[in-house]
């Protein structure tokens, strides 16, 4: 049981509202010239460098900043194939309508387990190299009993935050037989997938003919809840719709996208701020040329927000939380502090986790080091790879 003291931390963003001696002006729980002691993968002590207790090993980070490891609470990493042509077409005016999901489903079904595992491993490593220490991974490019179950089995090799998204779209072979597909998702497919999943999700979107209606989404989520899965919803992505209302009504942990929100949606989210987090995915707005929601307005209204990548082959093939942070500040009116808290404590809350997203004694030792003297450089130096998860921090999001 070796302990390690990390010293030479010029600026430590803890996110801990109770940390004594910290600067709490922007809710960052910020300490200058700090140290952190880690033991058995957990944080044992946080405080001023001058008061650091002795430990078995010492690691000096050389005057860099340290922030909580990023919590990427929304990704679709289990897929094969390439859809860069779709991205290119969107940049010159083609609208996104979810039709390309079928392309990824075809490629994913055609890949071997080992090919998929290798692809997921590379994407998780890419995330970690950019400061992400916890990742949620959804299925949703298999859409058959076999392919959804193996997607989740492979995802579970990398994270405990696995999400069954059999209700991503109605696959081509079920065209015209939606009710049969919903029955499969809530029956045999759910039974095969639930052992590998913590969450269930549904793409509830009236603006896509392949996605699911409010009624269908309710059936899917209720079935998942009945077998003990937590609830998440893809909602309000392509236009105004019922996703937020449904998520709040069912007590989902998160409703994701929230690109198009009505005043009633915002009011509902504010009223449910302890239960349902609005997870914003600005990489998707970037990659689909959509308008960005105003995150500052949501915070001012009392909504709990999170930021995540939505890394997927269609609407955002970026695994970079620093990119998401930069977009959130530039395009969604958040301050740098608000954005950083949304991608750490906010996304931890959306996963109903209180052991990550904040640097405090007892939490997992998920630390991200910045090759910079202050967290502000995450935004100030946008596009420069300054963030990296600090080793030893554990096991890729478990
Ligand atoms: O989160 N909204 C639905 N699903 C994904 C994109 C799927 C795709 O186009 O491959 C999303 O944006
Ligand atoms: Fe998604």
Helicity level, as a percent range? 25-40%
Main-sheet strand order equals: 7-8-9-10-11-12-13
Question: What is the oligomer described by this structure?
Answer: single chain
Instruction: Look at the structure and give the CATH class of the largest domain.
Output: Alpha Beta
Give unreliable regions as ranges.
393-398
| Strand-residue proportion | 15-25%
Total strands: 15
Bound compounds, each kind once, are:
N-(iminomethyl)-L-glutamic acid, fe (iii) ion
What is the CATH topology descriptor of the largest domain? TIM Barrel
At the fourth level of CATH, the homologous superfamily of the largest domain is Metal-dependent hydrolases
Net shape: globular
In CATH, the architecture of the largest domain is Alpha-Beta Barrel
- Total number of distinct structural domains: 2
Largest sheet: 7 strands, parallel
Query: What's the helix count?
Result: 13
> What radius of gyration results from the CA coordinates?
21 Å
User: What structural class results from the helix and strand content?
Assistant: alpha/beta
Mean pLDDT: 97
User: What is the H-and-E element order?
Assistant: EEEEEHHHEEHEHEHEHEHEHHEHHEHE
Termini gap: 19 Å
């Amino acid at each position: 049981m070796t302990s390690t003291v990390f010293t030479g931390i010029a600026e430590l963003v803890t996110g801990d509202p109770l940390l004594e001696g910290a600067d709490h002006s922007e809710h960052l729980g910020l300490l200058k010239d700090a140290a952190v002691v880690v033991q058995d993968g957990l944080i044992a002590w946080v405080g001023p460098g001058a008061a650091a207790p002795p430990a078995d090993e010492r690691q000096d980070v050389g005057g860099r900043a340290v922030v909580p490891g990023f919590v990427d609470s929304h990704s679709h990493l289990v897929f094969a194939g390439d859809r860069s042509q779709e991205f290119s077409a969107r940049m010159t005016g083609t609208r996104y309508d979810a039709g390309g999901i079928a392309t990824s489903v075809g490629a994913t079904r055609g890949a071997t387990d080992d090919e998929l595992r290798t692809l997921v491993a590379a994407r998780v490593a890419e995330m970690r190299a950019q400061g992400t220490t916890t990742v949620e991974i959804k299925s949703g490019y298999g859409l058959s009993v076999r392919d959804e179950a193996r997607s989740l089995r492979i995802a579970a090799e990398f994270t405990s935050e696995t999400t069954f998204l059999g209700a991503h779209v109605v696959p081509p072979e079920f065209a015209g037989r939606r009710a049969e597909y919903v029955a499969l998702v809530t029956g045999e497919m759910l039974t095969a997938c639930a052992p590998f999943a913590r969450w269930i999700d549904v793409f509830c979107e009236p603006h896509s003919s392949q996605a699911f209606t409010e009624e269908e989404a309710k059936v899917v989520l209720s079935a998942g809840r009945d077998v003990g899965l937590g609830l998440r919803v893809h909602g309000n992505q392509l236009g105004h719709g019922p996703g937020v209302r449904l998520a709040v009504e069912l007590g989902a942990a998160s409703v994701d996208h929230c690109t198009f929100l009505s005043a009633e949606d915002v009011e509902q989210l504010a009223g449910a701020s302890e239960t349902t987090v609005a997870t914003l995915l600005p990489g998707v707005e970037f990659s689909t040329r959509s308008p960005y929601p105003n995150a500052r307005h949501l915070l001012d209204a009392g909504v709990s927000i999170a930021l995540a990548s939505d890394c997927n082959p269609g609407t955002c093939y970026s695994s970079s939380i620093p990119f998401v942070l930069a977009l959130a500040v530039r395009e969604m009116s958040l301050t740098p502090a608000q954005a950083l808290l949304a991608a750490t404590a906010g996304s931890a809350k959306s996963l109903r986790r209180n052991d990550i997203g904040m640097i405090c004694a007892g939490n997992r030792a998920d630390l991200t080091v910045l090759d910079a003297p202050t967290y502000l450089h995450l935004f100030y130096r946008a596009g420069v790879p300054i963030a990296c998860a600090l080793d030893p921090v554990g096991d890729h999001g478990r």
